[in-house]
Amino acid sequence: MSIIAPSMLSADFSRLAEEIADVESKGADWLHIDVMDGHFVPNLTFGAPIVGAIRPHSKLIFDVHLMISNPDQYINDYVRAGADRITVHAEACVHLHRVLHMIREQGLPAGVALNPGTPLSAIEEVVDDLDLVLIMTVNPGFGGQKFIHSALSKIARLKEMLVQRGRSDVLIQVDGGVNTQTAAWVREAGAGVLVAGSAVFNESDRAAAIAALRPGGA
Ligand code: DX5
Ligand code: ZN
Questions:
Q1: So what's the ipTM on this one?
Q2: Quick check: helix, strand or coil at residue 215?
Q3: 183: domain range?
Q4: Atom number, ligand 1, closest to the C-alpha of residue 196
Q5: Does pTM surpass 0.90?
Q6: Which residue among 1, 37, 92, 199 is least enclosed by CB atoms within 10 Å?
């Protein structure tokens, strides 16, 4: 199983609806939406009004990655804007268990993201309360950064943890520095959902770029 989620962060922001329609027609499975607040991460992108504005233009699964402090205060805004799934950072949640249940109570799958410096033990107590784990393969904040190799063993250990806990249904997502080469590595390690910003949006042939990230694609 391999889900490809182009990250809107690398799209042309002056033509968002067209950019999204383009990757949708070229084989994207999900649209990854990177929300940054200039506080949890050193960059600022867009908020719920933009998500709501693009919603009518796409049937893609809106995969909202909240790189923001106090995400609990904003979950409902993103649900109303049309998010299909929401992922919060473990590092940004004092009450992670509560936030995951807030997301699930809205009927959405709940994800937890872990920065490269955060150990898997951060999710040990909420394995039964989540639907997706996002292993960051760069420090979040910017597109086009270099893939951090130590994440490969982390993905493999996460997979093992999920099997041991009877949660092999939980999706393993990777985000950051995914390209045709690293896509094969992360898939081998056990990831099923691949986010790719620059490797899709910066390519002129986006159908080929998306296909190249799938098994046997490169
Ligand atoms: C990083 C974001 C990523 C980013 C990935 O902070 O969460 O989703 O867009 O960009 P690439 O694929 O270019 O590394
Ligand atoms: Zn992201």
A1: 0.98
A2: coil
A3: 3-212
A4: 12
A5: yes
A6: 1
Catalytic residue among 34, 37, 63, 131: 34
Ligand 1 centre to CA of 197 (Å) is 5
Residue (of 88, 87, 92, 97) closest to 127 by Cα position? 97
Domain assignment present for residue 182? The answer is yes
Let me know if 34 is a catalytic residue: yes
Q: How far apart are CA 35 and CA 65, in angstroms?
A: 6
Ligand nearest to the CA of 176: 1
| Cα 196 to ligand 1 centre (Å) | 6
Phi, psi of 118 (to 5 degrees): -100, 125
218 within some domain: no
Whether 205 sits among the annotated catalytic residues: the reply is no
Taking the centre of ligand 2 as the mean of its atom positions, its distance from the CA of residue 167, in whole angstroms, is 23
184 domain residue, yes or no: yes
Is 142 assigned a ligand-binding role in the annotation?
Answer: yes
C-alpha to C-alpha distance for 172 and 193, rounded to whole angstroms: 6
Query: How many domains are contained in the chain?
Result: 1
Q: Is residue 138 part of a domain?
A: yes
CATH value at residue 186? 3.20.20.70
Task: Tell how far CA 7 is from the center of its chain.
Answer: 8
Q: Which residues line ligand 1 (CB under 6 A)?
A: 7, 9-10, 32, 34, 65, 138, 140-145, 175-178, 195-199
Q: In this structure, what DSSP letter does residue 178 have?
A: -
